[in-house]
């Protein structure tokens, strides 16, 4: 049986998209040549996603929602933002300060959180958005200004880098999965790093992992030959930077992933690398560079361990479904009359997608990292799974 290449199963590109893809590929090829014929996958992923004006998150294409490549929780239902805002409200009531959102996507999460905090009379001093994409920043500004009253919109500020000091709540919804990862493979009793070369097309090429200590946390005793997985020193670095910045408050990280024991299970032998293009999910990162999203699941144990090393507390860890239910999403849904079927039925379907184990409810987790918090967090009062990290 002939196996068709991934590219033949995906929607074809129009001329403009193909030209963009070719420019991105040419840029990466040039970097490979300049670096002696090989780059790490982390470098490839960074260039494909973040190269100014070329990378996936830096270009002009629609990325989120039904017309984009994937749908995030804030796009599915406004109740996600309202429930999350209840957790933000609890912390701001204790700490004061501001909210900092990392990578705000379409702006829907920011809109929903601000609207709910306004209704709770708990608007933050500022709502900061750290956005690396100039294109997304412009779209967010337009979206927020079109919906929010000036008195609320005036509190929103866009940043180009983390502030030196911060008090309040940091929100990183599906941020860690887009941090570039290194791909490693277990061969002949040692870790090899899977990098990228160019041989008429982009190809995988292995080299010995330069720093074997990066994979020291992985139990290799039961790994099969050729076992492939990801490590993400850059995500650890982000957590370290956030910990250094935070004076008092909470870092809230909803994302998809696992604790280390499940992440590096011998049966997960092909890793977690995934790509998304126009709602098609596949595992070939070399298709349509610059036009498709590239992600890897989050090792939440590594994030929690890094946080502890830098003086934060691991304040909670649970499934997205449990977090949202703890934060009152079902009560919000119950406030809508079932007799208003045109409004109620779509809301029920959306909440089902957020909560169902077969959809986002179990795969997506929420990790909470805190400093100086004096009471248990609302979102983790039931079903806290910190013991699994």
From TrEMBL:
Signal peptide range in chain numbering: none
Keywords: Methyltransferase, Transferase
Single GO MF descriptor: protein-arginine omega-N symmetric methyltransferase activity
InterPro entries in alphabetical order: NDUFAF7, NDUFAF7_sf, SAM-dependent_MTases_sf
Pfam families attached to this UniProt entry: Methyltransf_28
Keyword Methyltransferase: yes
Gene Ontology annotations of biological process type: methylation
Entry annotated with the keyword Zinc-finger: no
Top-level taxon of the source organism: Bacteria
Protein name: SAM-dependent methyltransferase, MidA family
Originating species: Methylophilus rhizosphaerae
